[in-house]
Amino acid sequence: MSIILQRQVTVVNCHASTETSDILGGFRPVRGRQIIVQEMIDKSVALVQEWSDSSFDVNAIAPQFILDYAKLKHPDIPHDAPKQVVEFIREIGNHYRSSKGSSTESSMIDNEKLSSKKRRKLSNGIISDHPKLIVSAHYQRVENICREIDDLYQKYSALFEWADGPLVCSMKNGSFLLLDEMSLAEDAVLERLNSVLEPSRTLTLAEKGGKGSTCAHDLANTSQTSSSEIRAQEEFRIFATMNPGGDFGKRELSPALRSRFTEIWVPSVSSRSDIGLVLERSFSSAIEHYAMQEASIVSAMPEIVQMMLDYFDWFNIEVCDDPSSFCNDFKLSLRDMLSWAKFIAEVVLKNKVSPYSAYVHGASLMHLDGLGLGTGVSNHDAAVTRNTAKAFLLNQIASQGAVDLTGFQDELHRINEFMIATEDRFGIDPFTISMGNEQVSTSMDFNFRAPTTGLNLRRVLRGMQISKPILLEGSPGVGKTR
């Protein structure tokens, strides 16, 4: 939706330690003081250059570095420049305030005394060069610059400044806000959203206080900065996602908060046709990304998609739905299928591996290497199910003729022979990774050719073919960290 509507979307990943300031904002130490000083100097230079009141010599009271700035462009800036600048503009303000009762009053235009006809002429620009109008505009310009410089000095002198959080920024910009896994955050944090979810769509920032210095994110737009009440733009929208309350570690939202949302139940994608469309698009996107028309994967893609769907149905229905199986909680999801498809596309297009070899290795990477982990299942039961799944995969590709299955069925087979270590590549055929620039030490106490180490290395290299995190699980002391 963000792409279609060309609207910015901000994602907040909620967790048990999420605080109110993570969403609304909070005070932080003032940053970029040099930028603030430079902005004060620039405004002071502009004030001197635009000065048009001949009754007051601004050059006589302006700091020397301000006068030199227009000539030298890069003069030496004293360490107390902010203080000199603010004293300079305050002296100008004192001059105008002291003269307001005398000469200033005579030079200002009293709009109430102008006839309606003359006001219409002024608004139409007929006598826009009236001297009194020019003087009035000059006074207004000076007053605005002095106020801006004074605000900048207050910001420079402060220790902390208010920084808007993602919610406040989205409300002001009229963009989208997505609260991911919202139910993980504490109730004290989520209840602050209640007023934003009301029809008035307002938020009172009690933490910020009332009137104060300009917000750190609002220097360009000073609207709403002097008030602690924020009203959302018309285009602002909040989206939130959560797992069911009965899921592990999750809880239900309060009725008050739920009633303010339009709730939509998102079922799991299990339809064969739906998953097939997603897989086809995933393969097509990978081919477009590499701008390659690899004949092997293009021609094999329809058949591979059908084999993946057959395996998906077989494992989820015949294996996981079996009452005696330990795989009830290991059903394949759409995320698993996308990882499988991404692996196949990556190794075929980058490593020039056969699509059918990539297909069976992708199944190992997707779930067979970690089958049964985290559930207390015995290694024997996991191995039996793993071998059954591998037999099903081999039967699927039996009609494809000779397919290189190195490292799939017998992962310990000929590790020594298939070890690859060149100047630019390292790995165990068919999976390699690029070598870095650092020189490899010759005194390392690793033996990658040992059977167990080689097996683990082969699986890690297989997992590194796609940008997906790798989790090593094992008993204490088996060498996971090493």
Explain how this protein is built.
- This protein is mainly α.
- The chain folds into three domains: 2-28 and 161-258, P-loop containing nucleotide triphosphate hydrolases (Rossmann fold, 3-Layer(aba) Sandwich); 33-157, no CATH class; 272-463.
- Helix content is 46%, strand content 9%.
- The protein contains 18 helices and ten strands.
- It has helices at residues 2-5, 20-24, 33-49, 64-72, 81-99, 103-107, 116-123, 131-157, 166-173, 187-190, 255-258, 272-289, 295-319, 334-351, 355-368, 379-396, 415-418, 451-463; strands at residues 9-13, 25-29, 160-164, 176-180, 202-204, 229-231, 237-240, 419-421, 425-428, 431-434.
- The strands form four sheets. A three-stranded parallel beta sheet has the order 1-4-7, covered by helices on one side. It has a three-stranded antiparallel beta sheet with strand order 8-9-10. A two-stranded antiparallel ribbon has the order 2-3.
- Strand 9 and strand 10 (431-434) form a beta hairpin.
- Helix 13 packs antiparallel against helix 14 (334-351).
- It is elongated, with a radius of gyration of 35 Å.
- Residues 101-133, 212-217 and 219-226 have low confidence and may be disordered.
Secondary-structure blueprint of this entry?
Elements: H1 2-5, E1 9-13, H2 20-24, E2 25-29, H3 33-49, H4 64-72, H5 81-99, H6 103-107, H7 116-123, H8 131-157, E3 160-164, H9 166-173, E4 176-180, H10 187-190, E5 202-204, E6 229-231, E7 237-240, H11 255-258, H12 272-289, H13 295-319, H14 334-351, H15 355-368, H16 379-396, H17 415-418, E8 419-421, E9 425-428, E10 431-434, H18 451-463
Parallel strand pairs: 1-4, 4-7
Antiparallel strand pairs: 2-3, 5-6, 8-9, 9-10
Helix pairs in contact: 3-4, 3-5, 3-8, 5-8, 12-13, 12-14, 13-14, 13-16, 14-15, 15-16
